[in-house]
Amino acid sequence: MFLEFLSRRYWKQFAAIAAVHIITASYGVTVGWPAPIIPLLRSPETPLPSGPVTVDEASWIGSTLCIGGTIGTILFAIIHTYFGKKIALLLTSVPHIILWTLILVGDNVWYIYGARFCSGLTGGGVVSVVPLYIADIADKKIRGTLGSLTIIFINIGLVFIYAAGNYLPYDLIPKIMLVSPVAFIVLVSFLPETPYCLLKKGRLLEAERSLMFYRNISDQQYQTAEFTTEFDELKSFVHTQSTQSRICWADFTTPEAKRGLFIGVFVMALNQFSGIFAILTYAGTILQMSGTGIDPNVALVLVAILNICGNLTSFAIIDRAGRKIMLLLSATGVGLALAVLGAHSYLLTIGYDLQGAEWLPVLALALTLFLGAIGITNIPFFIVPEVMPPKLRSIGSTISGTLLCMFAFVTVKLYPIMMVNIHIYGTVWISSGVCAIAVVIIIFLIPETKGKNLNVQSDSKK
Q1: CB contact at 8 A, 190 and 60
Q2: MF terms per GO, please (predicted)?
Q3: In whole angstroms, what is the distance from residue 331 CA to residue 373 CA?
Q4: What is the DSSP letter of 359?
Q5: What is the DSSP letter of 350?
Q6: How many CB atoms lie within 10 A of CB 95?
Q7: What average pLDDT does this structure show over 56-63?
Q8: What average pLDDT does range 358-384 have in this prediction?
Q9: Residue that wins the pLDDT comparison between 435 and 386
Q10: Helical H runs in 33-92?
Q11: Which of 24, 73, 304, 349 could be bridged to 159 by S-S, CB 3.0 to 4.6 A?
């Protein structure tokens, strides 16, 4: 049934987003790169002629990405606003090429800082452009499914680097990764600009052909009543936006805007302060410090695979189960799994004999990432366009994406320092507490947005 569904109406949407997600998967490689590489850089066998890096330098290696991400989110938001989403997507490959070149030729930690900054620029583009691109081209019936692909591709990159980072030579990885932006540029170049962007520029015929492409309609004679209705709604939506006054402070003071901004800030804060991104960044170090008897190199790969299983679970059921229930289950599960990981670390620290339970940290870490992947790590990226008022959708996504990068900087910079000063248990218990608070907020304040039509001013008008 799924293959039949994929082969007819929606396959071009899946194919287009798969092409776009080449850069997303490549970004995932850079997200996970510190996990296997930082332990190497801190060891006597470091490939850097300048010698092993310190704890503070390792924290900057992790967090410099977030500085670039903050700038990249704003930069690419400006680019897609004025030049369109296709141009913005193509330009995300530029810092990606630079970053792997810096890692390839670098001989000290400053080259790595520069590379991580460039990685953040690409990540900012992914955060600010990809969700809006998906919202522009996706049929509302599968928008959640297509939105879930973003985190799946990021985690495909994670699996690759977790597996390859411990076994391939340090300088071989950038040589391999320089291929991906070239493939990305070639494939995305063949995709049409989104119908929304073309209508904003007044290119009506091209917009119609673009929507026909993404709806897999080969000729105008095959246009259905459903297609005509959708295109008319999109034209009306763009016309209404174009005739509206410029965005002003009053637009942010409406109840709908306040609720949308609150939800956007909340889901991005949960995404980061749950600790999942920091755990992905420092998974190798956490496994080394947690006292597991399992080879950390093997454990890294197992954890990454279970993470993808969570992504696939979300992909399969998000448009049936709904956003709210998935977010609630995710926050609850992550909070409990981190509490267990902290308890194991605490008992080990105070001297309890935990022989026979060495597998528990790996299981807790795997459950954290699996349960995070069904909600916390992917839903924020496509729920923001669904909860924001249409007039504020683009700027709301930019604000949320910028805050995401700022929150990420705080967590990724502090996590390794906190793990030294208050141990693993203190660090992950803080994240567990964040999840507990989030559960209450989700229950009482987060609406369900499954199936919401983004091309009308309000679903209540339909």
Answers
A1: no
A2: transmembrane transporter activity
A3: 10
A4: T
A5: T
A6: 22
A7: 91
A8: 86
A9: 435
A10: 34-41, 55-83, 85-91
A11: 304
- Cα–Cα distance measured from residue 60 to residue 109, given in angstroms and rounded to the nearest whole number: 10
The structure tokens listed for 124 are 């900012």
Q: What is the pLDDT of residue 291?
A: 67
pTM listed for this prediction: 0.80
Q: How far apart are CA 264 and CA 200, in angstroms?
A: 25
Q: How many other CB atoms are there within 10 angstroms of residue 44's CB atom?
A: 6
CA distance 334 to 328: 10
Domain 251-449 homologous superfamily, CATH: MFS general substrate transporter like domains (1.20.1250.20)
Give the alpha-carbon dihedral of 415, 420, 423, 426, to 10 degrees: -40
Q: Tens of pLDDT along 240-257?
A: 877 776 788 888 889 999
Task: Note the pLDDT tens digit of each residue in 321-345.
Answer: 888 999 999 999 999 999 999 998 8
Three-class DSSP labels, 192-237: CCCHHHHHHCCCHHHHHHHHHHHCCCCCHHHCCHHHHHHHHHHHHH
Per-residue tokens: 293: 């008897």
Amino acid at 148: S
Indicate the class that CATH gives domain 8-191.
Answer: mainly alpha
Alpha carbon distance 292, 356 (integer Å): 10
Strands (E), 262-403: none
Is 196 in contact with 136 (CB distance < 8 Å)?
Answer: yes
Q: What single-letter DSSP state applies at residue 32?
A: H
Nearest CA-CA partner of 191 in 378, 21, 315: 21
Question: Domain limits of the chain?
Answer: 8-191, 200-241, 251-449
Tens of pLDDT, residues 258-311: 999 999 999 999 999 999 988 888 887 787 777 666 777 777 788 778 878 887
What is the rounded average pLDDT for all residues in the chain?
A: 87
Q: Is the dihedral of CA 400, 253, 327, 418 positive or negative?
A: positive
Which residue matches tokens 């034209």?
235
Tell me which range, 29-33, 37-41, 295-299, 430-434, is most confidently predicted by mean pLDDT.
430-434
Predicted pLDDT at 460: 38
The rounded distance, in Å, linking the Cα atoms of 415 and 281 is 10
The secondary structure of 124-162 as a DSSP string is: HHHHHHHHHHHHHHS-TTTHHHHHHHHHHHHHHHHHHHH
Phi and psi, residue 149, nearest 5°: -65, -30
Q: Rg of the Cα trace of the chain? A: 22
In the chain, % of residues over pLDDT 70: 95
105 HSE (CA, 13 A, CB side): 7
